Amino acid sequence: MNFDLTNDQKMLQREVRSFAETELAPVAPQIDVSGEFPWDNIKKMAKLGLLGIIVPEKYGGSEFDFVSLAVAIEEISRICASTGVIVAVNNSLVSYPILQFGTEEQKEKYLPPLCSADKLGAMGITEPNAGSDVAAMESTAKLEANHYILNGTKRFITNGGEAGIFVVFAYTDKDLKYKGISAFIIERDTPGFTLGKHEELMGIRATANCELIFEDAKIPKENLLGKEGDGFKICMNTLDVSRIDIGAQAVGISQGALEEAIKYSKERKAFGQLISNFEMIQGMLAEMATQIHAARLLVYYAGYCKDKGIPPRFSKEAAMAKYFAANMAVDVTRKAVQIYGGYGYTKDYAVERLYRDAKILELYEGTSEIHKIVIARELLR
Amino acid sequence: MDIIVCIKRVPQTAEAKVEIESSGKDIVKDRLTFDMNESDMYALEEAVLLKEKFGGTIIAISLSCSDAEDTLRIALAKGADTAIRIKAEDFDELDGYKTAQLLSAVIKDIHFDVIFTGCIATDDAYSQIGATLAELLGIPHATLLTNIEVIDSISHVHRELEGGLQEHIEISIPALFTIQTGINVPRYASLIAIRRAAGKEIKLVGQNEISKDQLLLNTQIEELFIPPVAKQVKIITGSPGEVSKELAGIIREKGLI
After folding, report:
1. Closest CA–CA distance from residue A371 to any residue of chain B (Å)
2. Partner residue facing A19 (CB), from B35, B74, B188
3. Which one of A37, A88, A109, A222 has the fewest CB atoms closer than 10 angstroms to its CB?
4. Among the CATH numbers 3.40.50.720, 1.10.3210.10, 3.40.630.90, 2.40.110.10, which is that of A122-231?
């Protein structure tokens, strides 16, 4: 058993941390207020290879493994949760399914621009009436000659307003229920595809969260990802992978909150002494550090499972990591605000932002409740 | 242009609590993180910029323990072609002079046009490696560079002086330069460069290659201590007129205006 990061993972961690502290830190509080998409930093990160961490070099990627992806997302999210999920989505939700299920032509066409951020990626699963219940989606795609005609609306799409390449799910055969869902690669300039409402979110506010509207959108036949009916499998497989980096995002946000809380507790005085001298503060800090450590190990282990292919389906491990890390992040950031007292409730301190950023973790890429169902289902097989 | 960059791995003490270890001659390092010395990062970047302009190779060299191989790999990821670690564990106590002798012993057998070092190490702040190494190698040097251009084997360099002055001098190469922070913007290593650097071999040089007999120390640390904190706060009381008059007097007396 080896808990050490490899040489290249340690270097990646150092460089991403240095980049995040220098380039992302000044921008993070600003884009939280403005909601402005951080294109400058995304372009800089693409140059470093962070937009295609898990993509092979021949398609323009950096060819690292999933533990490395987790390390990178953690370091980015420690400073800016919005940027963390933008990068995570491009890697896991879009590049990964194309890499895993795409044809050679699709990989050659779509992976290089995703890695270079010439075109950013977004994924469309959720709909106004279909969140956790994926099979309740109403979008349909009908093959007519050389095009699929896609109709439907996707909601709450991270990167949606700024992306150029979308992986979108729709029914090609409703009678087959979830086995009738198919996946498509859709370009932004597709006729019949428009952007809808931009969501004003509570946290991760700079992620261009947007509705996607398809009205008789013409998708070239060759943009079907996998085969007709593979959509649900592609979706679940992709979500398993993306749960590694959403878990990593949770660890990063929490680590950032812990560091802020430690610093503040060593500066703030009450009753004539530093609040770090008080056992109740110490207790919170100890709990936070332990929770983060446990979550990090779960996340890295899920990444390890994916990298090693053991177990071949690692849904349980990924669900455990994401479920635990998401709940942990909400609790840890709440404690950080508590340590700050009234100041923590103001926008003058980062913990207020981190607390808001953390809440989404319990909702997206599967709610915590869905993860418990996934875990229990595996236990009761 | 063949360039050698001397690199030191130093503890990051800016935000850490520094404690003196029981010998009284070093700081407690177990809980500190370590990284490349700040001005060495700028030295490395300057080397990479020159290499991009003129071609050639960059050798990163560090006198350090095995932990510093991470730092040398970062140098490889950022543009160095090869890396050498002189095994500090083979050479007992070190000071600036002995360090320069060891660096010189290795560098004298390597072809180079330029040697870069950082202008100061953030741990011991001796600032003596660059100049001493240049003397030992018998080459000219200039310190505290804020700019360098090389034209036809002549380096035109700007040195930072006190009072905001800059000095422009010309030095023929081969030469050694110590680099001031801010001379450039050090790059981040790309992930591909990191992956390639991770597998590169770091050449080790130790007591089998360098005789210890001739190595001399010329300084010895007697004691490290944290200076006592003196209370220098003066509370001025009285009416606003009296307070401002006394404050103005103090400022004038201290020569601050």
Report:
1. 32
2. B188
3. A222
4. 2.40.110.10
A51: distance to nearest CA of chain B, Å?
Answer: 10
Output the pLDDT for position A380.
Answer: 94
Check if A11 contacts B (Cβ < 8 Å). Answer: yes
pLDDT for B227:
86
Judging contacts by C-beta atoms under 8 Å, the chain A residues touching residue B73 are 7, 11
CA geometry: angle B94, B96, B97, nearest 5 deg: 90
CA distance A162 to A181: 26
Judge whether A228 counts as a catalytic residue.
no
For residue A64, which residues of chain B lie inside 8 Å, CB to CB? 191, 195
Domains of chain B: 3-205 (3.40.50.620)
Q: How many residues does chain A have?
A: 381
- Among A10, A18, A53, the residue with its CB nearest the CB of B70 is A10
> What is the per-residue burial (b if ≥16 Cβ within 10 Å, else e) of B146-183?
bebebeeeebebbbbeeeeeeeeeebebbbbbbbbbeb
| Distance in angstroms (rounded) separating the CA atoms of residues A148 and A144 | 6
**How would you classify residue B12: left for phi > 0, otherwise alpha for psi between -120 and 50, otherwise beta?**
beta
Among the options A211, A365, A369, A378, which is catalytic? Answer: A365
Q: Where are the domains of chain A?
A: 7-119, 122-231, 239-379
Are the Cβ atoms of A11 and B35 closer than 8 angstroms?
Answer: no
d(CA A32, CA A205): 5
Among residues 174-193 of chain B, which lie with CB inside 8 Å of chain A? 188-192
- Average pLDDT over chain B, rounded to an integer: 93
Give tens-digit pLDDT for A139-195.
999 999 999 999 999 999 999 999 999 999 999 999 999 999 999 999 999 999 999
Task: Give the C-alpha distances (Å, rounded to integers) separating B245 from A140, B197, B248.
Answer: 82, 64, 5
Tell me what the mean pLDDT of segment A11-15 comes to. Answer: 96
* Residue A124, strand partner residues: A168
- Considering the segment(s) A7-119 as one domain, its CATH architecture is Orthogonal Bundle (1.10)
Overall fold of domain A239-379: Butyryl-CoA Dehydrogenase, subunit A; domain 3 (1.20.140)
Element (H or E) spanning A378, and its range?
Answer: helix A368-379
pLDDT per residue over B134-155, tens digit each? Answer: 999 999 999 999 999 999 889 9
How much of chain A, in percent, has pLDDT values that exceed 90? 97
Predicted confidence (pLDDT) at residue A212 exceeds the cutoff of 90: yes
3-state secondary structure A273-315: EEHHHCHHHHHHHHHHHHHHHHHHHHHHHHHHHHHHCCCCCCH
pLDDT in tens, A241-270: 999 999 999 999 999 999 999 999 999 999
Answer yes or no: do B70 and A7 touch at CB < 8 A.
yes
Averaged pLDDT for residues B102-130: 95
DSSP A83-123: HHHHHHIIIIIIIHHHHHH--HHHHHHHHHHHHHTSS-EEE
Residue whose C-alpha is closest to residue B44's, from B106, B114, B124: B114
What is the pLDDT at residue A172?
97
Interface test with B, best of A9, A12, A15, A63 (most B CBs within 10 A): A15
